[in-house]
Amino acid sequence: MTAALPFLAAGWVLLIALYGLVTSRNLIHAIGCLAVAQSSTYLMLLGVGYRRGATAPVYGDLEPGSRPVVDPVVQALTLTDIVVGATVTALLLALTIQLRKRHGTVDPQALTALKG
Amino acid sequence: MKDRTRLALLAGAAAVIAGFYAAACPRLPGFGTPHHPYGDRAVAAALAHHTANVVSSINFDLRALDTLGEESILFVTVLASTLLLRLARDERKATPRTERALPTTRLFGTVLLPVALVVGVYVIAHGQLTPGGGFQGGVILATALHLAYLAADYRVLERVRPLAALDVTDALGAVSFTALGLVGLAAGGAFLENVLPFGAFNQITSGGMVPLFNAAVGVEVGSGLIVLLAHFLDQAVEIHEDDETPEDEA
């Protein structure tokens, strides 16, 4: 069970973020929660790629083959994840600004009626 | 929906997710296991292409097509945010006020702005050798410019930030990634194939196309982020609502 602990931690972060998303009364706060939910995937990916006693997969000052390195594939995936996450956050914040201008509120529960 | 119903629904869904996830976790490869078949193959492929930073090699050589999609997402987001945050009919632009920064803050910004710009370029240029690359270096470049806002005021930032040129640079950065991909096709290989000579290992010219892709992404991320932040800052600093016609926009 202790071997699965890092993955369970990632799951816990995801559930915490979902709780925040559902109970949020402010869209800015909700976007923050979404970012936390996404960071659970970073935790998951880096947990999968970890290798005991290994170092970073960069051979700038490391003799190839002298030491084991952690899995670079999941690190690259995490990098992609971070970039996409940042852009999604930016887009959602832009939408929230428009919403605030049109409806005068950032409380998702106050948004009941459709408006052009 | 009432708050209580919402929480009850979440509790149910969370229990299901937590149950299945917890059941799946022990069947994953163990934490810290020495067995990483994909990682080992990626390291071998990166070393074969003389790229010291394996993560860069994966992003700009082995999985370059994914990175093309990723930087397209970035480009489209900048485009969409520009569209969403443009000046509405009932808004007007006001000249931002001149602010006074503390002399120490001003000194800090003046000294650090060029240093931060050089660090950004360094991180992009050494992306194939040391941790870093186009995405990280581009972000450093973009944030470096905003030291002008911190250390002086918004007017100074607007002077050091040629928005119209950066809009074009952003698009050119995005296009040049595809153009570099077509080089592989023209050289008789495949789209996005690394066809340039790989160079001597651990030298700045190593990695073939990787430094070029890094530069293209660095330019795009740097200019894209500045444009993105410019629109958000405009909303806060420059754009004001006209008070006369609050309902006209619908």
From TrEMBL, chain A:
Subcellular location: Cell membrane
Entry membrane topology: Multi-pass membrane protein
Keywords: Cell membrane, Membrane, Transmembrane, Transmembrane helix
Primary localization class, coarse: membrane
Record has Transmembrane as a keyword: yes
Organism: Streptomyces vinaceus
A cellular component annotation (GO) from this entry: plasma membrane
Any Pfam family hit: Oxidored_q2
Source organism phylogeny: Bacteria, Bacillati, Actinomycetota, Actinomycetes, Kitasatosporales
Protein name: Dehydrogenase
Similarity annotation: Belongs to the CPA3 antiporters (TC 2.A.63) subunit C family.
TM segment ranges: 73-95
TrEMBL record, chain B:
Stretches assigned to coiled coil: none
Domain of life assignment: Bacteria
Compartment(s): Cell membrane
Keyword line: Cell membrane, Membrane, Signal, Transmembrane, Transmembrane helix
Mode of membrane association: Multi-pass membrane protein
Signal sequence extent: 1-24
Segments traversing the membrane: 72-88, 108-127, 133-152, 172-192, 212-233
UniProt key word Cell membrane: yes
Protein name: Sodium:proton antiporter
Occurrences of domain Na+/H+ antiporter MnhB subunit-related protein (ranges): 107-226
Family per record: Belongs to the CPA3 antiporters (TC 2.A.63) subunit B family.
One Gene Ontology cellular component: plasma membrane
